[in-house]
Amino acid sequence: MNTDSIQINAADLRKLLLSLSGDVALLYLYLHSGNDAQGAEKELQLTPDRYSSAAATLRQLGLWPEEKKQIISVDQRPEYSENDVLEAMDQDGGFRMLYGEVQRLMGRTLNTEELKILLSFERYLGLPTEVISVLVSYCKDKARQRGSLRNPSLRAIEKEAYHWAEQGIDTLETAAAFIQNQNTKNSRVEKIKGILQIRGRSLTQAEERYASGWLEMGFDDEAIAIAYERTCLNTGGLNWPYMNKILSRWQAAGLKTGEQVRSGDRKPLPQGASGQLGAAELEAIARVLREE
User: CB neighbours (10 Å) of residue 80?
Assistant: First the structure.
């Protein structure tokens, strides 16, 4: 086994930490040390189930050492006809079972245009029928989490299907790994909502992008709480762009935890609360003086 030292960039490290899996981290180190995947299961003494789960998670996180996946465009999707659908229903037992399962999940009969979309999942995107069933269930759960009482449309599910295909989520293992990672992320986003004192509503898409971005930056809950407190003190309430600037500045300075922020970013109290300037303000004044 190759045991040469390797370097892990910050983005990969954050993904590994969010996976919350020692098997995932171990397999990542093994593969990125130049070892072949075929020997990983034996050399790392992983059971087939543990190896399969770790490999699926690495692929879903984009950390598997392989070529980038082809981007699939909805604009290039073949135009399926009504005859294509009828033929699939008559000759493709797997599609016939899929059709029945998706109708059961959606709680209604699918029309011809929706069946064409469903057929494209199987024939164009190459998703197995069992993965498509998991996809539909995932989209239903996601809609419920957003507070919707209605099932998502096939068009909405189609957008997620293309995302899965581009990410290589085409087995039950990779689908399970993806959903587990999403659940972990959603749990942390809910904690951020509590920190920001947002109750009784879901985040908007723009707000969710901010929150997800902070998690990807690697901030812990305490650092986010401090940023929120400073935002409220300086702006009178929650201001997403302002808070994002604070956290972006901390990220650039390598401050990711509450402890690091307290020791490395001496932010002064609002005007009138203290007559002393913080380190950032002193540096700004010095820079202006040097330029004059």
Answer: 20
Please identify which residue in the block is written with the tokens 């087995």: 171
User: Which residue type is seen at 65?
Assistant: P
Nearest alpha carbon to residue 117 among 162, 163, 155, 171: 155
Give 130: exposed, middle or buried? Use CB within 10 Å, 0-12, 13-18, 19+.
middle
Q: Is 124 helix (H, G, I), strand (E, B) or coil?
A: coil
User: Which tokens in the block code for residue 274?
Assistant: 């203290």
pLDDT digits (tens, 9 = 90+) for 45-104: 888 778 888 888 887 777 777 644 455 666 777 889 999 999 999 999 999 999 999 999
- The token pair that represents 142 in the structure block: 């996601």
Residues of the chain short of pLDDT 50, as ranges, are 67-69, 268-277, 281-282, 284-292
165-199 b/e with 16+ CB inside 10 Å = b? beebbbbebbbbbbbbbeeeeeebbeebbebbeee
Residue in 73, 77, 58, 94 with CA at minimum distance from that of residue 168: 58
Residue 23 near residue 16 (C-beta atoms within 8 A): no
